[in-house]
Design goal:
Layout: E1 2-3, E2 22-29, E3 32-38, E4 53-58, H1 65-79, E5 85-90, H2 97-103, E6 112-117, H3 118-126, E7 136-145, E8 147-152, H4 160-169, E9 176-178, H5 181-194, E10 202-205, H6 209-217, E11 223-227, H7 228-236, E12 240-246, E13 270-277, H8 282-295, H9 299-308, E14 311-315, H10 317-337
Parallel strand pairs: 1-10, 4-5, 4-6, 9-10, 9-11
Antiparallel strand pairs: 2-3, 6-13, 7-13, 7-14, 8-11, 8-12
Helix pairs in contact: 1-9, 3-10
């Protein structure tokens, strides 16, 4: 798949000050994340009682999807007295693998939760990162978000089949865009479902959903895959036309036909999960999982699901292990098709 311009790894921003110490500089080199840590994101100052203190780490800058999950979880826990002191630390860089690497050295410290998801799993593969999900303790998938295939409102393509037909005729002539690596995976998956070689596709990388929308509106790109929450306002305003929702089945409240309903078996979802450091006791793991399950039952979290257009999906225990293994296999296969 042709990428223009090439996606580059984001350098980590200034290290975040935490309750106990400070994480110092992170760099990406030789397709791996090298991490220097002084102190830690930290256990609670008065012990490791997770109801006393918790740090929720968003592996991206403020304002993105992972940050939204972290801050809504923080609000749910604070408002309902589930944790006395909850802070959110933003730790951006390399698709989330900077934060993953930092958490991977906090073994045995249960007062830390890392937000992750499809994009983080994909980044560990894309960047061949030193730290992977095997170096932390995945606890639960809590929500998922769906991509939508969109074109400008004045596009000649009225249906997904119209778009795919034109795409197949000359794959390089129809430039695609998206707001991140997950969106590129969706485009790759759609290409394969349509019988198009992903390497023949022109994909223009955009820095976030807003930039991808601008690329559509100014004619730089002819089609895009992007998160439904990022695109719904433009769809409702009549500036973009939604051709397909990328979901396993129709979603209540979203009046957009799925790609599968239209004959294209594409259903990769942008799920969000929570993980903790490795080497925790069974009692700590059980307590953290229970905290998450109580948090997502709160009115504050349920309100966030509505506001962010998330779909609740709870996956824990053995089912989570199987799910993550299957997703890794699937995403690795897509990257191979992309020539990465």
């Amino acid at each position: 798949m042709t990428m223009h311009p090439e996606e580059t790894r984001r350098r980590a921003k200034s290290p975040a000050r935490t309750l106990i110490g400070r994480l110092i500089g992170s760099v990406v080199a030789a397709s791996a994340v090298t991490i220097a840590v002084v102190g830690s994101v930290g256990s609670a100052a008065n012990g490791q009682d997770i109801s006393a203190s918790m740090t929720i780490i968003a592996p991206a800058a403020a304002g993105g999807g992972w940050d939204g999950v972290a801050r809504e979880l923080q609000q749910a826990q604070k408002a309902n007295g589930l944790v006395n002191n909850v802070q959110v630390v933003n730790m951006p860089g390399a698709g989330g693998t900077i934060a993953l690497g930092n958490v991977s050295v906090l073994n045995g410290q249960p007062n830390n939760l890392l937000v992750g998801g499809t994009g983080l799993l994909a980044a560990t593969i894309q960047f061949d990162s030193a730290a992977t999900l095997a170096d932390v303790t995945p606890l639960a998938v809590v929500v998922e978000e769906y991509d939508v295939i969109v074109v400008p409102a004045d596009s000649p393509y009225e249906t997904l089949d119209d778009l795919v037909t034109a795409w197949k005729e000359d794959p390089k002539a129809l430039p695609w865009t998206g707001g991140g690596s997950f969106d590129q995976l969706v485009v790759t998956d759609l290409a394969l479902a349509a019988g198009i070689d992903p390497l023949d596709t022109t994909y223009i990388s955009s820095d976030g959903g807003g930039e991808a929308i601008q690329a559509l509106l100014n004619g730089t790109a002819g089609a895009a895959a992007g998160g439904y929450p990022d695109n719904i306002d433009q769809i409702e305003a009549g500036r973009l036309r939604a051709l397909a929702l990328v979901a396993q089945e129709p979603i209540s409240g979203i009046d957009i036909p799925t790609a599968a309903e239209q004959g294209f078996d594409v259903s990769l979802t942008n799920w969000r999960m929570l993980a903790a450091p490795a080497e925790l006791s069974d009692s700590d793991v059980d307590a953290l999982r229970q905290l998450i399950l109580e948090s997502v039952e709160t009115p504050e979290w349920q309100d966030a699901i509505s506001r962010y257009h998330w779909t609740e999906r709870i996956i824990v225990d053995d089912e989570l292990t199987t799910f993550l293994d299957d997703e890794e296999t699937r995403i690795r296969a897509l990257y191979k098709e992309m020539g990465l």
